[in-house]
Every structure is written in structure tokens, then in C-alpha cells.
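If I may wish for something, please sit down with the protein I am sending here and say whether C-alpha cells and residues agree:
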Amino acid sequence: MATITKVSREAGAAYKAVIRLQGIKPFSKTFRLRKDAKTWAERMERNIDEAKAYGNSQARDMTLTDLIAEYSQQQEISKAAVSRLKYWEQELGERRLIDITQDVVRVSLKTLGEGKAHRGNGKKGTKATNRQRAPATVNRMKSALSAVFEYGREHCGLAVNPCRGIRRRPENNARIRFLTEAERKVLLTACKASEWGSLYLLTLMAITTGARQGELLRLRWRDLRLSERRAHVGQTKNGEPRVLPLTGGVVEILKALPRPLDRETLLFRSFSDPHKPYEFRKHWDKAVKTAELTDFRFHDLGVCQRSCRVH
């Protein structure tokens, strides 16, 4: 049962709504307008889960930043998840958990989906591109936030997960951009002329194997079987191992390269650390610009495996 009383404050009159429900410690909230106090009280009486959250002091007082900090300390999370949660801290971090409703999350996701996609800038940061964020990106951002709220439900007395009930966006991210034979030759020529000597090999392997950027950058010298003309990818994006066939041209280039003493060294290593991949983005962008290609990404190179042959 709720009661609403008028209270005097220095800023003027206000209205205090007090909720008393069986099994829940009484709690209250003050509003400037009586109608707002009444609306809130009626909502609490209709939604017992939300009322329990308000009655729980821990859940009532925690902000999203507080919950993300606890979640990150208690759970093993990926670098991608860390990045996504940093976004939510900036977006909703100062809000109390009980004030982050399904409508709040829905509006935030809508804003996110209407924004521009970002990519690495080569300086451990990101920069906006000209492309709108993909539905898959929005879905993963929502999943990261949902995982935090589920943790809050299990460990912090939070009654509801506002991400539940928000439908996933259809992930129709298919995007086909084939290189013509002329475009392929011009691009490979530009890659050969790059200041980074391995750009040609990386691009050639992407075209001929169909492997993703991450798979190629994770390749180590121990993964190569040059006599068998293949390379073993330890773990694909889907979590399954697979073998990459190597063309004769790729094998010839690899045989000509100096072999490191440590076979754990990455094939496309950074100059400072043999176990970190080289940040090649600026060299790739320059090659694409030199080749005068439009609307073409490194990711699209895999498509070329099905549309052209390289020897």
C-alpha cells in the first residue's frame, strides 16, 4: 500500500510517496509534483520485482559504474567485452541501476545503431568511419550490458534485467565487394610498394586462403607446414581449428624469409614484441588509396578467394 504526503523543503513543497508491501522493508521517493508521486507509487504496486529492488538498499544505491566494476573483478571477460562495457560506463554509468529501465536501454541502443562504426587508429584508440554500425555490433553491445545486469540479479539483489524483452536486431551483415582482375593487380602492386614489407604477403594470403584478418595475424612460425603447403589456424572466429591451404607463390615468399630462432614468433610480428601483431592499418589504407579502390575493406579480401586465382 502507498501513501503520499506533502512535505516542505527550502526549494518549495514536494510530495513523498511511501511504499509498504508485505515482505519488503518500507521505502520512499520524493517528487516535486503530486501526480508524479502517484504515478511512481502505482508503478511500484504493479511491479513487485521493481518494488523489491527499491526496497533493497544495495540495488537501490548502486550505479551502473559500480556494478560494472564488481562484475569485471569477479568475472573473466574478453578485451572486446571490456571495450563494450567502457562504452556503457560513458553512456549510463552515473545512473542508478533502478533508474535504467527497458526504455532507457532501448533508446541507448537506437542511438548506438544510428552512429558510425569505429575502427582502430593505430594508436590504441579508435576513429569513426563513414559506415553505420552493423546490427551485429548493436546486438553484442546489448549482450555485454545484459551480462552485467544478470550478474546484478544473482549477486546484488537487482530484481530485473532491463535488456530482457528487447529483441535482437536481424544480423543481415552480408556485404559482397569483389575485386576485378585489374583492381586486384593494382592493389597487390601498391602493397608490394608499401613501407611495411609484409603487407604484400598478408594481402596475398588473405586473398588466396580466405582467412580472416585475426586468423592471419595470430599465425606463428610453428603453425606453418611449408613442405605440405598449409598453415594451421589454432582457433577460428567460431572457436574451431582449421587448416589454410598455401599457394605456391605464398610458399616461395615464406621460404625466402629469415626464420626466427623462436618458432613461437608471430609471422606478422610487431617490431617491438615478437608476440604482438604488427599494426598495419595505416599501410593498408595507403595501399587502398594508391590503388584508387572505393568501399573496400581488408575483410573483403576473403571474398576474392572465390572469384579469382592467384599463383
The longest strand covers residues 12-21. The mean pLDDT is 82. DSSP finds twelve helices and eight strands in the chain.
